[in-house]
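Minutes, project check-in

Agenda point 3 was the complex the collaborators sent over. CS summarized: three entities, 1213 residues total, and the question is how they sit relative to each other. Sequences were read into the notes so everyone works from the same version.
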Amino acid sequence: MDINLALVLLLAPFLGFLANIFLGKSLGKNISGAIGTIAVVVSFAMSLFFFLQINQTGQPISIHLFDWIAISNFNIEFGFLLDQLSLLWLLFVTGIGSLIHLYSISYMHDDEKMHKFFAYLNLFVFFMITLVMGSNLLIMFIGWEGVGLCSYLLIGFWYKNQNYNDAAKKAFIMNRIGDLGFLVGIFIIGFMFNTLDFATLKATILAGNNLDAYWIAAAGLALFIGASGKSAQIPLYTWLPDAMAGPTPVSALIHAATMVTAGIFMITRLNFLFDLAPAIQDIIAVIGAITSLVAATIGLVQNDIKKVLAYSTVSQLGLMFLALGLGAYEIAVFHVITHAFFKACLFLGSGSVIHALHHEQDMRKMGGLRKAMPITFITMLISSLAISGIFPLSGFWSKDEILMTAYHQSPVLWVIGSLASILTAFYMFRLMYLTFFKEFRGSEEQKHHLHESPALLTFPLIVLAILAAIGGLISLPGHSWLNHYLEPLFSKAHEAHHLGTTEYMLMAIATVGALLGIGIAYAKYIKQAQVPEEDEKITGFSKVLYNKYYVDEVYEAIIVKPINLLSRFFRDYIETALASIVFGFGKAANELSFQGKKLQNGSIGFYLFAFVIGFCAIVSYLILAQKKF
Amino acid sequence: MDVSFILIILLIGAFATYFSGDKLAPKVALLFGLVSLGFSVYLLSLFNAGQNIDFISAWITKPSISFSLKADGLSLAMLLLNTALTPLIIFSAFGNEFRNAKNFYALILFMSFAMAGTFLAADGLLYYIFWELALIPIYFIALIWGNGDAEERKKAVVKFFIYTLAGSLFMLTAFIYLYGKAGSFLIEDLYKLELSSQEQLWIFLAFFLAYAIKIPIIPFHTWQAKVYQKAPTVGTMLLSGIMLKMGLYSVIRWQLPLAPSAAKEYMTIFIALGIAGVIYGSIVALRQKDLKKLLAYSSLAHVGLIAAGTYTLNLDGLRGAVLQMIAHGFVVVGLFFVAEIIYRRYETREISEMGGIRSQSPKFTSMFMILVLASVALPSTFNFIGEFTVLYSLSQIGIIWAILGGTTIILGAYYMLRMFQHVMLGETNAKLFKDVTTNETIVLVSIITFLLFFGIYPKPITDLITPSLENIITIINR
Amino acid sequence: MDSVLNQIGIENYIFLSVALFCIGVFGVLYRRNAIIVFMSIEIMLNAVNLLFVAFSTYHQDAQGQVFVFFSMAVAAAEVAVGLAILVAIFRNLGSIDVANLKNLKG
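CS then shared the predicted structure for the full assembly.
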C-alpha cells in the first residue's frame, strides 16, 4: 500500500511530463496547464499523507524496487526512503511547486510552447522528488543531475536568444563541475564503507568502524564541492544570476525555492559524516559566510529586479551554509523552508510586475506601482520584511537562529552574517521603493496598461505571503516543533537556544540592523528620491559591484579562454604533428623504395659489375672468415 | 543450434543481398540483419538455459588450427551488440540512394559477419583471420561510397587500411610466437602458457599496437577523424559503433589474460594513456567545425575512458568497460545518424552553417537532445551506468585517476552542449528543415528506448557479462 | 714418365687460368659490343675448362676431362642460342650495343 502510494507520489509528475510532451500540443493550453498542475498537486497530497503518518508514527518508510548497479563489493539498489527529512522537503517542493504551476498557467499563457514549459516543470518536480526520496547517494545523484538538466532546459526555454542559451549552458556546466565533486565523494564513501545507502552508511559510521579521518574529510570536501555547485556558493555561484534568463516561475521554483537547496539537503542528509570532519565544517561555514556577504554587496547596486533577487538568493544560501558549517543542520533546514516561502513569493511578485509591464525588468523604469498593483505590493512587502528579518515574520526567526549560533561559535562569522543581513534589508527595500513608490518612470503606453494581475497570479502570492508571515511558527525558540521532528536524523542532539540576556540582545541587534538597512534605503530612495544612474555613468566601487567584481570576466580569462586556446592549439598543431609522424613512416618507406629503384637502371653492364663485386665480396668474406687458405 | 549459425546467416545474407539486385538489396539485407538478431536472442535464451552453444571443429592439422567458436557471456553481449546494431545501421541507410546498392549492403552484412566471427573465435589464428577480414569491407565502403574530394578520401582511407593492418601484423607475430610455445592456437591452451615477464612484455606490446590503433588510443588515433569524416555515415557507424569495440573486446579477451604480469606491471602507463585520451579528445572536440569530426573526437574521449577501465584489471573496470562499450555503441550510432539526418536536409556538415533547426523540428530536437544527454552520461541513461562503474574502478586504483577521468563529464557537457546550441538553437534557420520521417524516427526511437531502459534496469546485461568477466579476472590473477 | 704437367707445374696452369678468367671478366665488364661480351664469356668458360683438365691430370682422375666435354657441348649449344638472340636484337634495334638494352630499367 505504502509502496504504491509512494510510487504515485514519485510518478505523478512524470506522467504529467509524458502527457504534456506527447499530447500537450493537441490538448490545448488550459488542459495542458491543468494536467501539469494536477500532477504536482497529487504528489503534494501524497506527501501530506505520508507526512501526517510519519508525524504520528515516526517510522521511516523505505522502498526497495530492484538492484540497479552492481559494484564488485556492493550493490546499489533502486530504492527510496521516506523519512522525516525527505518528507519535509517533499512537502514544500510539491506544495510550492503546485502554487507555481498554478501561477504559470496564467503567466505563460501567451507562449506558444506552453505545453513544453509544463512538461519541463513536471519533469523538474519528478527529478526533485527523486533527489529527495532516493535511498542512496546514487539515486540522489539521478535527481541531482536531472534537476540540473531541467534547469538547463528551462533557462534556455526561449531558445531563439543565444544569450539565454549561453546562460543555460553555463548553468549546466558549472553544475557539472560540482557534480564531479559529488561523484568523487561517492567514490570515496563507496570504497570506505562499501555502501552508498543512507541508512547503512549512518549505522556504519555511528558504529565507528573504518573511520579514517583523512578520507572522511576528503569525502566531505568533495561532497561540499558538489553542494556548492548546485547551491551556488563561491566559487561556483556565477551561474545562478545568469539563470534568471529563464521565465520567472522557473526562477521562483528552481532557482530560489527548491533546486538550489539541494546542496543543503545533501549535507543535512549526510550530517553524521560531516560531523566527523570539523575542518570541512569550518570551510563550509567560512565559504557560506563569505558568499552571503559578497552576494549581498553585489545585490546592492543591481538594477534588474530579478538580478537583485538572484543575488539575494545566493546570499541567503550562504547563510544556510553558514548554519550547516556550524553544525546547526535543523536551523539551516528551518531557513530553507522560510526562505522558500518568501523568496518564491518575491520572485512570483516580481513576475507579476514584469507581466504587468510587458517584460520590463529594469527597476529604473518602474516606480509607483503600489496603487496599480495593491495585492502584489502587499504580498511583496510582507516577504521583504520577512527576508529582512523583521519581527515576527518567518525570516526573523530563522535568520536569528543562524546568527545566534554563529555568535556562540565564532563572533567573526556573526559579524559577517549580520552585515549581510543589514545589506539584505537595504537592497530589498531599495527594490521595494524603486518598484512601488514615487512616480512611474516607464513609457506612457506601459502606464496606460498598468493593471493588477489576474487572480491566478495573485492567489499563489497571497498564500506564499501568509506562509512567509507565519512560517516561523514551526520553530520558535524554546518550543521548536521542527527540532523535535528532525531529531531522529541527527547523530548529536541539538539543544534549542535558551533565551537568556545574550539572546535577547542579539535579537535586538539584528532587528536594529534590519531597521537601519531599511532606513538608509528610505532616506536614499524616498527622501532624496534618487534613481540609480544609467549604466555608463556608474563609477568607482559601485561600478566594480555593478559588474559583479568582474568574476565572470576573470573566469573567462583564466579558464574558458585557455581551454579554447588549448583546443585550437591541439587541433592545429598537435594533431598535424601526430599525423605527420604516421605519414613519416609511409614517407620513409617511399623514400627507401625510391632509392632502391635507382639500382634497377637496366644497364646490363652495371648488373654484371654488381654481380662480380658481389661475388668477390662473398669469396673474400669466406676466405677471411675461415682463414684456412 | 550453435553460434556458427549466426555466422552462416550473415554470410548467406551477404551473398543473397549481392544476388538480389540493386532494387531489392536493402530489404534483403535488413531481413537477414533482423533474422540474425532474432537468432542471437534465441541463442542467448539457450545460453541462459545452460545449453552448450559452442561450435568446435578441426580445420587445419598442420599447423594445428581449429575452427572453434565459443560463446560466453562477454562474447554473447558483443555478438548481440553487433547483430542489434547491424539492422539498425542498414535501416538508417534507407533514406539514401547508393550506386551499386547490392554491393554496398552486401559489404555491410559481410562486415557484420567478420565482426561476429571476431567476437566468437576461440582460436588465435581464426580470430586473426576474422579480425583482418572485417577490415576489407569497411575499406571498400569508405573508399567507394564516401564523401568529399576523392583524392583526399583515398588518402585517408588507404592510410587507415595500412595503419591498422600494420598494427595487426605485430599481433600475428605474437600469435605465431605463442604457437611456437604452446603448439596450438586454442585460447585455453594459450591461457595455460607460463611466460617469462620479458616475453609477456613483448607479447603485451605487440597486442597493444594492434589494439591501440584500432580502438584508437592516443597517440595512435590520427587516422580516425579523417576517416569518420570521409566515410559514408553507414561506414562511420560500423566503425565507431562496432568495429572499435572489437579492439576493446580483444583487450579483455586476449591481451590481458595472455600477458597478465606485464599488464599488472605497466598498468599505470596504460591507464594514463586512456585518461590522456579522454582529456585530449574532449579538448580537441571543443573547437571542431565539422559535426562528424566533433563526434569522432568525442568518441576518442569516450573510448579512452573505456580503455582505462579495462586496464584497471579489476572486475568493476572490466564490467564498466563492457557496459560502456555497449552504451557507447548505441549512442554513437544515434549521433552519427543525427548528423546524417541534418546532412540529408542541409547538405552540409559545417556546424557554422546550421543553427535554428529546433523551431522547425520539435521531434528531431527532442531525440537529438536525449542522445546528447546520453552521450554526456546523464544518470538514468545506460551510458551513466558504464561511466560510473569505470570511474569507480579508477578511483580504486587512485582517486586522482577518477578525478582526471571524470573531467569527461564536465568537458563532455561543454562540447556537446556547445555543439547542440550551435546546431539546433537560435533564430529560426532560413532554410527549411523537414522534421524526421517515420523511418528515421524508428531508428532513433529504438536507440533511445534501449539506452533509457537499460539505464534504469541494467541487470540483464550485468548478469550476462559478469560470470565471464570473473573468469577472465581469475585467469589474469592465476 | 714425366708428364707435361710435372715439367711446367700446376701453379702455372692455375695462374694462366685465373689470368684468362680475369681477362674474360674485364671483357664482359668493359666492352659494350655484345659479340665481344659473348667472346669474353667464352674465354671465362674456357679458363675454367683449362683448370678442369689441369686438375684432372694432377689428380689422375678422368672425371674432370669428361666434365669438360660436357661443358664444351653445353657451351656450343649456348653459343647457338646466344648468337640467335643477338641476331634478333640486331634486327630489332640495328645495334648490338649492350648499353642500349635498358628495357629492364625499374
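Noted in discussion: Chain A has 26 helices and four strands.
Follow-up: revisit at the next meeting once the mutant set is ready.
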